[in-house]
Design a protein that fits this description.
Blueprint lengths: L16 H7 L2 H4 L3 H17 L5 H19 L12 H13 L12 H37 L4 E6 L2 E7 H26 L1 E2 L15 H7 L4 E2 L3 H6 L2 H28 L6 E3 L17 H25 L12 H26 E3 L1 H8 L6 H9 L5 H18 L8 H7 L7 H4 L2 H6 L9 H15 L4
Parallel strand pairs: 3-4
Antiparallel strand pairs: 1-2, 5-6
Helix pairs in contact: 3-4, 3-6, 3-8, 4-5, 6-7, 6-12, 6-19, 7-10, 7-19, 10-11, 10-12, 11-12, 14-15
């Protein structure tokens, strides 16, 4: 490793090689190089606009920076640990290309506001990509929903069968969760789109810079009002990891259900070969690896959020080296949720098939229509709590007799209460039970069709 000194003549020797490796971030912040170059181009143009450097010098700087971009994209720029970080690597290479004018690029700028700008530019771009992944996932949920409006599935509370519902209604619940994820990312984008460039190390600069101009060039909505806040703020990163964690919560919940549904005990879905794996020893097995991996990867995103909170909770103003630790969690969080969203979308699109015959059996073999018996009596002026208690006794005696409610004769019904008539059988038929729940947002088929129409309109909204 090179003994070259990175810092000013205040230092008489280079870092101990082991400490240099420990201190370096180039191994991961190279991910920011394109954003660092873009930010530096804007900074160079601003320096010329404000007459801090000449137009000719700015043109040389921009040309050199774009040459570095090309070199990197072609695989010809690969700085090592001796560069310490991506910012110094770029500045050093720029000086090699354009000479001493390259040393002027850092005028009126600190690595503190520079890295803050880079990470925001990176995250803004990634948020937009994540929103597209969310839309694709929603589209896959919606496609199944349109096919299964009148397919019934047991609805559960406490993992006990509660009431039958439309399968589309169940899937649309995840659509709505994902919509909140999309909207949350939109909100986080707004707070990521604030420029710290020009805040300097912590106190601003003596040069007559134009922060609004660089913010405009970089597409930021506004600039930080306080230079101390600008270089030390990582609220946007915490918010992003919180939003990412909620995306993973929703994916993990659906994953858990798919794992259950694919089991022999439920047998609600069939896993197709393109999205399942086998056992190394048990040839009959078909394993739900995709949802299991998504469920497992949720923990690592939670961990990144916790780590970011711990990093920030004790930092005095302004910049501290601890903030170097913000990037790896953000980078991995981005890659993890994009990978999980893509995998779950593929699983929905081509990896599962709902077993409609089995689902129809499932909703016909339990007492999940008991509430509808109570509602039936309530509609005939029997107080609901009285009806509720009566139906509880009916279920108890039916279980003892090995019968379902549909198996009771009209005479047995009327012995329980004279309000029962022949239409009780229609009232407790599974499709009628579902169809009757026609309140706004309910599982009734009419409501589900309306929900699908609203969902389609949401998919047309672009970030």
């Amino acid at each position: 490793m090179s003994k070259q000194k990175t810092w000013s003549d205040r230092f008489e020797s280079a870092l101990n090689p082991a400490i240099a490796i420990f201190n370096a971030s180039i191994g991961f912040d190279i991910e920011l190089i394109e954003y660092d170059l873009t930010g530096s181009v804007a900074h160079a143009k601003m320096l010329a606009k404000t007459k801090i450097i000449t137009d000719s010098e700015a043109q040389q700087l921009v040309s050199g920076l774009e040459q570095i971009r090309t070199e990197y994209q072609q695989g010809n720029f690969n700085p090592g640990v001796e560069a310490e970080d991506v910012h110094f690597a770029v500045e050093r290479r720029l000086t090699e290309i354009v000479g001493d004018v390259g040393k002027k690029l850092h005028t009126a700028r600190s690595r503190n506001d520079q890295v803050g700008t880079d990470i925001r530019l990176y995250l803004r771009a990634e948020i937009r990509e994540i929103q597209q992944y969310l839309r694709q996932f929603q589209a896959a949920l919606l496609a199944h929903s349109e096919q299964h409006v009148e397919t019934l599935i047991p609805g559960y509370t406490h993992l006990q069968r509660a009431q039958p519902i439309s399968l589309a209604h169940h899937l649309l619940a995840y659509f709505q969760m994902t919509q909140r994820d999309w909207e949350r990312m939109e909100d986080i984008y707004k707070r990521t789109s604030i420029s710290p460039l020009g805040c300097g190390a912590l106190a601003g600069t003596t040069f007559p810079i134009d922060r609004a101009y660089t913010a405009q060039l970089l597409g930021f909505d506004r600039v930080y009002e306080n230079s101390l806040d600008g270089v030390s703020d990582r609220d946007f990163a915490i918010e992003f990891l919180c939003g990412a964690s909620l995306i993973m919560v929703h994916l993990s919940r659906l994953s858990e259900e798919m794992i259950l549904w694919a089991s022999q005990e439920f047998s609600f879905i069939t896993l197709k070969d393109t999205c399942a794996t086998g056992s190394s020893i048990m040839p009959q097995k078909k394993n739900p690896d995709i949802p299991e991996l998504v469920r497992g990867k949720t923990g690592r995103v939670f961990g990144h959020l916790q780590a970011m909170l711990v990093i920030m909770k004790g930092l005095p103003l302004a910049y501290n080296k601890d903030l170097q630790e913000d990037k790896e969690g953000i980078f991995d969080g981005v890659k993890t949720i994009k990978g999980c969203l893509e995998a779950m979308t593929i699983l929905l699109e081509e990896g599962i098939e709902f077993k409609t015959a089995r689902l129809a059996e499932a909703v016909a073999e339990d007492f999940s229509n008991a509430t509808d018996v109570a509602d039936y009596l309530a509609s005939k002026d029997v107080p609901f709590r009285e009806a509720y208690n009566l139906v509880g006794k009916v279920v108890k005696t039916s279980l003892a007799a090995g019968k379902l409610l549909k198996d009771l004769t009209l005479e047995e019904w009327q012995q329980l209460h004279p309000a029962f008539e022949a239409d009780i059988y229609d009232a407790i038929a599974p499709k009628q039970v579902v169809s009757a729940r026609n309140s706004y947002g309910g599982t009734g088929f009419e409501q589900v069709h309306q929900a699908i129409a609203r969902a389609k309109s949401l998919l047309e909204i672009k970030a």
